[in-house]
Amino acid sequence: MPAPYPFGETVVRLRRGTSPGRDPRGQPIPGTLTETLVEGCVVTPRAETPSVGGDQQQARDTVIVGYTVYAPPRSDWRTTDQVRIRGDVCEITGEPGDWGQNAFTGMDGPVQFAADRVSG
Question: What's the rounded Cα separation, in Å, for the pair 54 and 24?
Fold first, then answer.
């Protein structure tokens, strides 16, 4: 089956499995990381406009804070996943939103989510 957006790009979903237990200090041990290629995604820069007159608005109008991803219909994304986009590892911010079925065309819409770059 071809990707829903033929000129879209491939991103990598990073998902941790269930923790196998705790370390000697009682901290959870991270589960196994699974990487899944997701083809046919539309990726756009996500901008934030600083408030007028605020400290952040020093001779600039917008600041790029991450990406907005439009993933294929019914693709599986969780708030606990990470995503690798163009080499950047990003956290999923907020709940992924499923656009559902278009009432005019009957086609399934994308799953949309915000992704913020991981720093540090």
Answer: 47
